[in-house]
Design brief:
Strand order of the largest sheet: 10-15-16-17-22-19-20
Strand content: 35-45%
Length: about 350
Amino acid sequence: MINNMRITISERFKPFTHLSGSSALLPFSTFCCEVYPALIRVYNLEGTHKKLLNEIPLNVNGIVEGFTMQQDIEKGCLKVWGKGAQGYFRYRIQATDSGKSFKIITEKEPAGTSLFVNIPQTEKVEPIQPIAFENLSFGISKSQDWAMVLRRQKMMEILPFWFRLGQLVPSLSPHEPNIADTGTLYLLKDAYRALEEKDPEKLIKLLEMLFLAGFEGLLVPRMEDDQKQGLNVPPLDMSKTASPLTLLSDGKNLIKRMIIDRTSDNIQILPCLPAKFHCGRMLNVRIPEIGFFNLEWSKKTIRRICFQPCESSQLTFQFPNNVKTFRLRRHRDGSTQPQICGQPIGFSAGERYLFDNFKR
């Protein structure tokens, strides 16, 4: 029975690029790094426009083979490696001081050379220990080479990255519905309206537009569509204070609410999921004052829910596709009870429950 309570996701989030000059967010900070084989530019994204903070040269000469920048979302850092004329090099960039600064740690450099001439080497920096991630998968397991991801342009593949990365940036502005309606944030507000209207097909089209207009590099948010793609993004209103990081932090909340939402003591499962998102899993989902959920669905129908309440309460559940009954199992004693959808159910704090055997 314990195995039946487990829902897992095997994918690991480590997108990468081989393109010189690509940019990526530094997890757990407001910094963005634009990385070349022989130069790093660091920007701050707290304001409406990104601000250049530093330019860091590298002692790299000649053609660089296998140049790669990887955003290791699992470990919360950027990794860069390649082979120049003098030999192989590898380093990582990591946020420190609660995201207020960063360190560059050389892991490998050619013998007899110093990769960073003007940067004193620091003591070993321990990785930031992230909190338990809320995790999402729509069953897509393809190469995370970002050039290929952009070419495929499949939201089922992109949204899990967006959802995970949105948990690694600070929220610098009021949450929806108080998002400033300026620049690309206007598209985010439109997407929230489609969510409230329970219009999943309109919502996914708006998210596609928002992805194209509001991001560059490896999901680096921006306030303007610099590529002029004809997406009708409203001009920036300079009288309004805003940060592009809102696209990640509040975009993450929107993606979560597509799959599980709450109104008072009513929990809505898959309330606004587009038809082509026919299968998926979501783990460690926290609903404040309610508890933690793991979910699995396939063929557009919910299959299993694991629930651990944080306090004793009575809740009702709503399911899609005319689900009328399901089975509720307590982990502690293995007892089961048939349940009718829409009727209140009592839950005990600290206990674990399994919902399955959903029937129409």
